[in-house]
Specification:
Number of domains: 2
Bound molecules: zinc ion
Largest sheet: 2 strands, antiparallel
Structural class: mainly alpha
């Protein structure tokens, strides 16, 4: 749920960089199929406008030998990425690295919890081999969010994950992740997705599904204790002079911090804390420290 700028490479830059490194025979074979790769990219662009990627034609499960684009088989195009891009020491790998570093190490799918390790095919190459080296189908991702291994993609629009380059602005600029403070020892902050009701049904479904697919309820919760423990200790010491209203204002500074992701765990947690009358007014006399 971090929006990323679309890579500054066009649809065939990576394909052409790969063919540039091939021997004569392979280059001729791949270049002959360039129009079909371009056609797949045009189809992808059209479906990106309507966010209906699930409707793009799919390759069959298995069947690596099946011809899917011009003279090229599904296996040819999957290997083009694995061998021609990832293992390249030349221009294809330079493009790969440029796309990867643009995320600055922060995974866009899980709102910065994970560290980006590899590029993820938003549309898995086993299902959409014609897009295996399309730069706009390659998204930096952490290990937990990289879905390539599963190689599935939903057939329903409602279930499509949020695309960090190409998706609707509302997923990034409007609040749809919330949290509530649960008064218990230790304090619990529970995250949930609740997209605005004025959103189209499809977008509400997609946001909720993204939250589930990336396991954000648990992964956000796992971030809480490291922040909440020290905060409660502060409230019992240096911040003990604050009235509930002053403490609330103190928490709201972080809840409103535009440098943090709107739907990330930290802003969401601080909003829940400052909106909790109990949290702002208790003296934490018991064993409230998160552990
Ligand atoms: Zn991630």
């Amino acid at each position: 749920m971090r929006k990323l700028t679309i890579p500054a490479f066009n649809e065939l830059d990576l394909f052409d960089a790969c063919t540039g490194e091939m021997d004569e025979v392979a280059r001729r074979e791949f270049t002959a199929s360039r129009p079909q790769i371009q056609a797949a990219a045009i189809d992808f662009a059209a479906h990106s406008v309507t966010r209906t990627w699930c409707q793009l034609p799919r390759a069959r499960h298995g069947h690596r030998e099946e011809i899917v684009a011009g003279e090229l088989s599904k296996g040819n195009l999957m290997d083009l990425y694995d061998e021609g891009v990832v293992k390249s020491k030349g221009r294809p790998r330079d493009i790969y690295d440029a796309i990867l570093v643009a995320a600055q190490g922060r995974c866009p799918y899980c709102a910065d919890i994970g560290t980006t390790r590899t590029l993820d095919h938003y549309l898995p190459k086993a299902k959409f081999p014609g897009l295996s080296v399309h730069p706009h189908n390659l998204v930096p991702a952490c290990r937990d969010c990289n879905t390539d291994a599963g190689a599935g993609f939903p057939t329903s629009q409602n279930l499509q994950p949020i695309h960090p380059y190409l998706d609707k602005e509302c997923f990034f600029s409007e609040r749809w992740v919330h949290a509530k403070v649960i008064r218990c020892e230790p304090v619990v902050v529970s995250f949930f997705s609740a997209p605005p009701v004025h959103w189209p049904d499809i977008d509400q479904h997609r946001a909720k599904q993204h939250f589930i697919d990336c396991n954000l309820k648990d992964r956000f919760s796992s971030q809480v204790s490291g922040e909440l423990g020290p905060l409660i200790l502060q409230r019992k010491s240096s911040l003990a002079v604050f009235s509930p209203a002053q403490f609330e204002a103190h928490l709201r500074i972080i809840a409103d911090d535009v440098n943090l992701l709107l739907n990330g765990w930290k802003r969401t947690m601080y909003l829940a804390l400052c909106e909790s009358d109990w949290f702002c007014s208790t003296d934490f006399a018991g064993d409230w420290l998160a552990n």
